[in-house]
Amino acid sequence: MSTLILFLPPRDRLRAQGQAMPAAPADPQAQVTGREYAYVLSANGRQVSAEGRLALAALPRAEQIVLVPADSDLAWHRVQLPKVSRARLPAALAGLMEEELLDDPEHLLFALDAQASGGEQAWVAVCPRAWLAEHLAALDAAHLFVDRVAPLSWPGQPRGHFQQLADEGRFELLWADTDGVSSLSLSGSWGRARFTSELVQNASWSATAEAVEAAEHWLGSPVPMQSRAQRALQALEGSWNLRQFELAPRTRGLRAVRQLYRGVMHKSWAPVRWGLAGLVAVQLLGLNLWAWQQNRELDQLRNAVDGVLRSTHPQVRAVLDAPLQMQRETETLRAQAGRAGVQDLEALLSAAATAWPPDRSPVDALSFETGKLTLSAQGWGEAQIANFRQQLQSEGWQLEVSDGRMTLRRAKPSERKQP
Fold first, then answer.
1. Of 175, 252, 337, 412, which has the maximum CB count within 10 A?
2. What pLDDT sits at residue 19?
3. Which pairing describes strands 64-68 and 148-149: parallel, antiparallel, or unpaired?
4. Are 210 and 227 within 8 A, CB to CB?
5. Where are the alpha helices (DSSP H) in 1-123?
6. Cα(256)–Cα(385) distance, rounded to whole angstroms?
7. pTM to 2 decimals?
8. What distance in Å separates the CA atoms of residue 186 and residue 215, rounded to the nearest whole number?
9. Which residues contact residue 387 at a Cβ distance below 8 angstroms, ignoring those fewer than 6 apart?
10. Which of 232, 226, 32 has the alpha carbon at shortest distance from 144?
11. Residue-level pLDDT at 262
């Protein structure tokens, strides 16, 4: 599944004293719409297919779009989750974290891990709601529907990433562990003193190309290189999605189907997909074996019927339709023996005589064709015809009445009345 990762530019912050603030645009939405985005395009979610920086209208399309904010735009707080409904959870979190936040809670977005549940300790990611909502609205207007907002770092297994600060010559270490996410300067010895040799060996380390040399000097050991694009692809493996509560995507119609498809195609569902594929394969194999067995039984029945034909009528050389050939040969033998068959006049007259109503006089006129006897129905009442038909059906004959005539013929097996 193709994935387009968009990097959100860091938010503008207060400048140092004496530095001028940039003029605020008259239309903040227009500023976001006209901004360029750094992007990474991956055809399979594991390897980089293309990367660069393009304006919003020129961004490539993909089956999944993921928005990645800068590490500096996210704050992490650990709280005891209250046992409240999902709808009331943002208000409850705002009340719990009010003293820890630097901004008014109504201006912030709270996000939880997908596995978090009420009554337990959990990490809460916090970012400005209006800032993120502006970018989401601009992307939606450009028909780039963001499926997920994923952080580059989150609390969990110890890992560190070295990078150079934008527009500065300094380097920083982004450190994440079970105690949260923090940014450390490489200058000074206080930050290095936190890392014991055991922690350095157990943690995962990476650095951008320009920060590798400084990272190895600071850490005292080799550090593998990892670009921002590779780090963003690695972030896709996490379970965090900051698009929650007020900014949760509205999935309807085709978008809902696409969202469901993307969820099922996630690698966490791989065992389910393999299980379903195996189940389908077993079912197909079973159906093929059952069909093979049925065909084999049919072939055995055909061979048995052909054998009966050859043993009964050895003069038949080529067997094309054994039941039909058997009937023809039997009829030939019957005719040669001078015996009447069910299609002959004698059999039809005998059947009509057996079922003939006692209050009816002999028939005035009749006509015969092979297998069919036609009698006059003049003067017959409906009750007499119904009784005559019933008597004939019990013996395996069929009676049809039309235009004052009754036609008698042998009923087919499917037309015979079941007792």
1. 175
2. 45
3. parallel
4. no
5. 28-33, 89-97
6. 67
7. 0.58
8. 8
9. 357
10. 32
11. 61
Helices within 100-162 (DSSP H only) = 129-141
pLDDT of residue 415: 60
Q: Which amino acid is at 78?
A: R
DSSP state of 225: B
Q: What backbone phi and psi angles, to 5 degrees, belong to 177?
A: -150, -165
- Contact of 64 with 144, CB cutoff 8 Å: no
- pLDDT per position as a tens digit, 90-143: 888 888 888 788 778 888 999 998 777 777 888 999 999 999 999 999 898 888
CA dihedral 286, 289, 293, 295 (to 10 degrees): 110
What is the C-alpha separation between 274 and 133, in angstroms, rounded?
A: 38
Identify which of 317, 318, 358, 315 has the alpha carbon closest to the alpha carbon of residue 336.
315
CB 376 within 8 A of CB 382: no
- Residue-wise pLDDT for 5-25, tens only, equals 999 988 876 544 444 444 444
Whose tokens are 């007259």? That residue is: 349
Judged against a pLDDT cut of 50, whether residue 392 lies above it is answered with yes
Could you tell me the two tokens for 277? 């594929």
* SS3 call for 295: helix
